[in-house]
Every structure is written in structure tokens, then in C-alpha cells.
Amino acid sequence: MLHLSFTLLLALVLGDSLGAAFPPDALKKSFSLSKYQFPVPHELKAVQKMKEQFEDIMLLSDRKCNTRLFHRKWNTAELSVADRVMLVEAELELTTTMLELPAIPAFAETRQRPLTFLTQVREDLRGWMATEAPSHQPSGKLRHWLQKLQTAKKTETIGCLEASAILHLFQVLNDLRCAALQEQCT
């Protein structure tokens, strides 16, 4: 019994001293984006399969979309790392929102794996922004694009936003790779 009490007391003392040695902020989660420099091949294959199936569905519809949301006059590499992360986070927010919409059963099944992957990426980017650049304000280029995105969300049809998000998924993944490099990218 004495041994158990001594062990418990020792654990409490050590716990207090370790708590003082490592303030709570020092133990916060670290977010590394390096794993997104080269996404896992099976994730890329799932995204490619979903994109191809969506293109087949698009051939059967007569959607006329004029949105040029993903056509920019600047390159992602021109942005700061924090701007790149913020850009990809916004792109993924649109994409995951569109992938969560009701769909025909075959497409709903095909998009589950990419949706899970892209949702995880978006959460990792949010965590990175919260820890690495919590007070970052977007540059003029990015701010203009974010305003364009907000306008498109209000003025474009859901079908056009969905098509734009899915058909440009590999551009989003390239932007992600660029953000993960945290240096000059091409």
C-alpha cells in the first residue's frame, strides 16, 4: 500500500514539474503539409476516376457554364506560402461542398474516397493556418480571387459551380503541392 501511495505521489510531482517545463502551447499539434507534395497514388487514381465519371455525366447534360473561376492571370507560385494555403483551403471548401451535394447513386459512390481525402486535406490546411499564420491577411491578388469566388457562389448555378470544382480538381491538387513545398514552385 505504501508503495502504491509513493508511486502515485511521484506521478503527481512529476506531472506538475513536466507541466511547468512544457507549457500547454508548446504541446500544441504541429501541422506539416509536406505529405501533400506528392499525394498517394491511390488517392490520385480515385480523383481521376471521379473526374472521368463526372465528365461522362456532363456529356449527357446540356449545362452551359460561363464561370472562369479557376482561370487566373497569376500563378500560384507568385503567392506567399500562407496565401497559397489560404487559396487551396478556399478551393477545397468549394470542392468539398460540391461533392457533398446529392448525386446519382453511381457517382455518389465514386466520389466518397476523393471527398474523404479532400476533406482531410482541408482540415490539415485549416490547422496549419491556425498554428503557422493565424493572423495572416491575404495579398491583393488572393483577396481579389476570394471576392470573385464569393460572387460566383451567389451568381452561378450549383451545376456550374459543381462542374467547375470537379473539372479543375487537378489544378487544385497542383496548388496544394505548391503550398506544401513552402518554397518556390512551378
Automatic annotation (TrEMBL):
Which N-terminal stretch is annotated as signal sequence? 1-21
Keywords of this protein's UniProt record, alphabetized?
Antiviral defense, Cytokine, Secreted, Signal
Q: What is an example of a GO molecular function annotated in this UniProt entry?
A: cytokine activity
Biological process terms in GO annotation: cell surface receptor signaling pathway via JAK-STAT; defense response to virus; innate immune response; positive regulation of immune response
Against InterPro entries, the record matches this protein to: IFN-lambda_sf, INF_lambda
Keyword Zinc-finger (UniProt): no
Does the record carry Signal as a key word? yes
Q: Which GO CC annotations does the UniProt entry carry?
A: extracellular space
Q: Which Pfam families match?
A: IL28A
Q: Give the family per the record.
A: Belongs to the lambda interferon family.
Q: What is this protein called?
A: IFNL3 protein
